[in-house]
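Practice problem 4.
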């Protein structure tokens, strides 16, 4: 056991910090996947403003490099609190899809979990957390519960990141409607960021999230020059900038761009006069796009808005039409570049003309 470097463990709930101590006794352990099973009704909150405080002598001593946690949100919070350390570079949290009523408020601890990880290691490379569950409809959120308030220093911690390669927050309810806007604003220039996925849920289904406008895609291009995969909840009703940036060949490397409308679905069809400026804007920003539609493909399983998309999805149809415009721009540009390259290689005084078309 002393030479064990990777371990997958399923533990019966509830899990206490003392149950985790033995894992710290494995000196070579670098990768841990830990899950819970069985009923657990406990909902133990951190004290208001004290989520970074150590409450166990073995906290922060882990040598783990990769940590995957699956279970209820309170388990994920406390296990993260125990294992996060300067060694941890990859964190993956998967919240159980089925939660007891007492556990739902724990979903609002996601910002605290994020803060724990990046505070313990500003050089963290990956942070991912997701919830595939659905609201029951009878959630009792306490908006004045100070234990669930987004940490004040989270923005400061985000600004200190330098080595982040992946940040993914999928379908996690948030208590502050402008959380995603603030995260995007706080993130610094990240030269290694490859994947950014920010699609939260509103904690109150009557809330309307404040989402980044379309113009923010320009700053995303500048801040994250290596970004290849972007999935982002955005204000799709916001104005499209008319001042289009120039393309510097070969252009930004973004390959997949999934723009998720509020509530996961466009309110109406987009006209051609609306799609053309949007397609021109996206093409100038990200001339190497390969996929903007697969996220919205009709399939029977649950979609981002918690419902099943059918073939009549307004968003699917709109983004499919948008994709057609983008592909046409790319084809025209590729042909022009190819023609210029041919001319550059031709001997002086000669012109590369296809005589069959004269």
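Answer key:
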């Amino acid at each position: 056991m002393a030479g064990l470097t990777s371990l997958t463990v399923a533990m019966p709930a509830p899990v206490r910090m003392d149950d985790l101590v033995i894992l710290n006794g494995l000196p070579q352990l670098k990768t841990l996947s830990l899950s819970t099973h069985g009923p657990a009704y406990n909902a133990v909150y951190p004290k208001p403003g004290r989520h970074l405080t150590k409450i166990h002598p073995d906290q922060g001593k882990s040598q783990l490099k990769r940590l995957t946690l699956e279970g209820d949100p309170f388990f994920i919070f406390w296990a993260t609190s125990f294992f996060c350390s300067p060694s941890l570079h990859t964190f993956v949290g998967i919240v159980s899809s089925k939660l007891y009523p007492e556990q739902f408020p724990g979903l609002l601890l996601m910002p605290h979990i994020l803060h724990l990880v990046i505070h313990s290691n500003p050089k963290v490379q990956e942070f991912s957390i997701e919830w595939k569950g659905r609201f029951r409809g009878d959630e009792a959120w306490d908006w004045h519960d100070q234990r669930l308030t987004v940490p004040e220093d989270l923005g400061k911690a985000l600004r200190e990141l330098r080595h982040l390669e992946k940040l993914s927050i999928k379908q996690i309810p948030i208590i502050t409607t402008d959380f995603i806007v603030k995260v995007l604003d706080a993130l610094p220039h990240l030269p290694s960021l490859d994947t950014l996925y920010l699609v939260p849920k509103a904690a109150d289904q009557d809330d309307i999230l404040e989402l980044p406008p379309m113009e923010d895609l320009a700053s995303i291009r500048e801040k994250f020059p290596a970004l290849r995969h972007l999935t982002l909840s955005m204000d799709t009703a916001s104005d499209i900038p008319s001042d289009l940036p120039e393309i510097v060949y070969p252009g930004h490397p973004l390959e997949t761009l999934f723009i998720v409308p509020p509530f996961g679905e466009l309110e109406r069809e987009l006209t051609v006069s609306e799609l053309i400026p949007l397609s021109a804007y996206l093409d100038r920003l990200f001339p190497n796009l390969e996929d903007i539609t697969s996220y919205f493909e009709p399939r029977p399983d649950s979609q981002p808005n918690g419902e099943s998309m059918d073939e009549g999805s307004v968003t699917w149809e709109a983004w499919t039409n948008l994709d057609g415009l983008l592909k046409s721009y790319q084809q025209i540009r590729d042909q022009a570049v190819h023609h210029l390259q041919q001319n550059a290689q031709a001997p002086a005084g000669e012109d590369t003309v296809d005589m069959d078309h004269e």
